[in-house]
Amino acid sequence: MLPRLKNDWTFSKLSELFRHSNGFQFPFLETFPTFLNLLPYIETPPQGSRRNQKTTQKNTWLGGKPLLNLARRGSYFHILNNKQTLHKVNSKDFQSLKEAKDAAEHVLHELATYQNLFINQYRISETPESSYIEVDLGPRFMTCDTDSLELAQKHLWKLNELNEVYAMDGKTKKYFATELAGKPPKGHIVHFKDGNPLNLRKSNIQFTKKPTAKVTK
Question: How many helices, marked H, and strands, marked E, lie in the chain?
Answer without folding.
Answer: 6, 14
